[in-house]
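Mods, move this if it's the wrong board.
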Amino acid sequence: MIEIDLSNIFKHSPLPIYVLQDGFFKLVNPKMVEVTGYSKEELLAMPFYELIHPDDRQRVMDNAMRRLAGEQVDEQYEFRSITREGVTRNVIGFFSLINYGGRPAVLGQVLDITEQKQLEDSLRKNEARYRAILDSIQEGYFEVTLSGSYTFVNPAMTRILGYSLEELQGLNYRKYTIPEHHDLVYKAFNKVYRTGQPMDFFDWEVVRKDGARRHVVTSISLLRDDSGKPVGFSGIIRDITSRKRAEAALQQEKERLAITLNSIGDAVIAVNTEGRVNLLNPVAEALTGWPAADAVGRPLEEVFNIINERTGRPAKNPVHRVLAEGKVVGLANHTALISRDGTVHSIADSAAPIKSSSGEVMGAILVFRDVTMERKQEEALKASEERFRLLAEHALDIIYRYRIKPEPKFEYVSPACLQVTGYSPEEHYADPGIVYSYAHPEDRDKLIQLYSGDYDFSAPLTMRIVRRDGTLAWVEQRVVPIYGNLGSVVAIEGIIRDITDRKRSELALREVVQGVSASVGMEFFRSMIYHLGRALDADHALVGELVKSENPRIRTIAAYSEGKFLENFEYLLEGTPCANVVGKTVCFYPERVGDLFPQSKLLKNTGAESYLGVPLFDSKQNELGLIAVMYNRPVNEEQFRFAESLIIIFAARVSAELERVRADEQLKYLSLHDSLTGLYNRTYFEHEIQRLEKDPPRSTGIIVCDVDGLKLVNDTLGHEAGDRLLVATAGIIRRAFREGDIVARIGGDEFAVLLPGSDERTVEKACHRIMDAVEEYNAANPELPVSISAGYAHGKGTSINLRDLFKEADNNMYRKKLYRSSSARSAIVQALMKAMEARDFITEGHADRLQHLAVRLGKAIGLPEHRLTELRLLAQFHDIGKVGIPDRILFKPGPLTAEEVAEMHKHCDIGHRIALSANDLVCVADLILKHHEWWNGKGYPLGISGEEIPLECRILAIADAYDAMTSDRPYRKAMTHDQAVRELVKCAGTQFDPYLVEKFIEIINGQNSVSPDDRYSL
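Not the wrong board. Structure tokens:
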């Protein structure tokens, strides 16, 4: 054991530190107080184990006791701690055995790893979730190298092809592709590789390992590594064999339907969404008196003229209600049809919607028959059984009595039969066997047992029926047997309840899972919201993504309302129940939600009475948006729990798809836009050229722009300044055009604008707008002016060659650039000069003092006037290159690092390039380059020595050094005159020309006279 002083460690450590002895804290540092939430006094008075989670407490105590006993124990391990507020944190403890107060003690430090633990757990869950999704989808997913070797397939892929993953590896696609499609598949993959663009689903046929042929559709995408290099392909394969067979079967069914319509005994009329007739069968022609050729295209009311046979007043046509509500509707009782010749027929009928596969109402079908005789029988039956009917006729369920012996017949069937089955009670009286005709074929045996009396009457019978209109319904029968004298069943009485809605919900749940598993992108969101809305019997459903801004909004991705898809829309998040969902938790408002959020336009527009919302998060737990369903009625707790559980199941899938779609959109945007300016890039510009060449407009204009002086800015101020110049230029050009015009950056300093459909005058005005915008920008931003050379070309007629037109615009631009280049560089140099003056590199008045000292020395040694002029320019502008040196180096208060010194040395070369670009400074460009060279050759940037160094540079070096030494600097105080003179003498012959040093000292000491014999050799 060693004695150590813990005071410094306690004072400076960012980690909690403590000393533990006899089960109590003896010392704790301030960080320990901060992290635990206890005061120092509370910690020193409490047993240490109270800070340990109960499940870890014994282990930590045992380790502490064993360590104090001298045993070998791990010096660090994980456990959980509890703060004063009861918050559990995951930590790593670091422990050492020390001597404290002459006795063994434990020195401990704690590192909080709670967030790391949570992140690891989240990553594990996400990986498992995505793997489960791939393993559960019905579509095959694959990844292959460029050579076609499989690197990954999901289970569905092996099921579709009949090969295991091991068998697929190394297997050429021709092995399982029918010969007719070999070339089709090769071209598809080759196109994706050449263009880099994914390919939507295309059809082909494969041959499974067992020899069975299957129709499939495949989508392909290119896989790239981190550098963007193509490394393989990924794709989805969907088996559509059943769909292909269904399409063939559907065609056969259409043919059979036509035959059926013409042969059945009921009249059939079909109408479109406008209520106009588009089909009559022969029975309908006979009853209405209208030939199909005359009736088609006419309003239904003109062909199907119905009245109430008791009052003689026109009856309501059920088709209008069907088209409005999308539900089956029957004719009112006592309805009569007046045929074209005036004949009156008592009829019974029902009207049903004709719907597309997506649930959209496309028309209605009306089925009716002449029931004059049945109507008479019905009236007689009602007269004899009025009391019973008063009860049965108002029931929604079918109430019936069926006689088994001596002969089968229905003795009573309630009117609900027509609503539930589409068949009237009279039809059941006339034909007792009708129940077998509309029983589903697979459930017919159950019905035969029931109506024969050979059935377990204690259990209800659940079965399917096919309504008259062809729709499927589920019913549940509860039956009571009537026994005869011999103990056998002679009749049954029963109640039949329509449970289609309940069954539909159960089936719809399965449909949601199956319906969305194969979808991606917008198809997925629309499919999911459609199936989800149906499964939950919701009036409104939506998936919305969060749009972050000063006033956050929700933008719908897919919205479904009362049986129809809506156009996507946006609404403010604030003031809606969604504000309590997004980024937070599930929210449920069972009733009167509009009263709770009176400002919500979403609730007002939908008329919703109840609301359920579930939040969406991405893989990093950032809020994405929400799924919401709304009802125009109150919803009970049981319905809410079912809806919540179902939506939460799909929320993770929706989140993952939304995150994937956003990533795809970002990649697509980057592939078509310049990353610096946000304009379209050359790839997009070339694509538009190719598109317009295929269908050229009558006239087209092209403008080509080039940024003048960009190289000078890059070379002097650096590429960051050059990038700012390019961004400013892009903004100027973009603002000069309409939003729909194609503005692109097609090269380093080149921009182009494509103006299809514009006349020559419009294109010329656009060029003027660019130049006016440049002048306006430069007036507001004089520190770095923009100069643009622009040229345009215009063509008209269908034979325009856009590439020649572009070349013409480029040549016109180049001619203007040759004219403007000199003035543009001069403007930039003038801006740099102003920037140099504004930055005050050294100290106030330095340039004036330096010019005065240098000229005095120059005159003293006999420099002619023209060289004195150049010396003045050199003194004023020798450091102009420092405009390209970062402020962090230029104004650093302490010594520079080796890298910073190398950066500072560049100012000579930068200044040289600036001077060459300005007519007024060309004469001193070479002097600016060499003004930091040393007499002994150890200066920079060229390393020349002695009289190779221009005389003006040697003069400036001495004057500059003297003024620098006698002026204050950020990192030191000014030297005295004598100290500076001694330093000049010390450096004479190394840094400075020794003769000039001697003459300079004479001048500043008041000995200004120089004899002709002493003049420096010029």
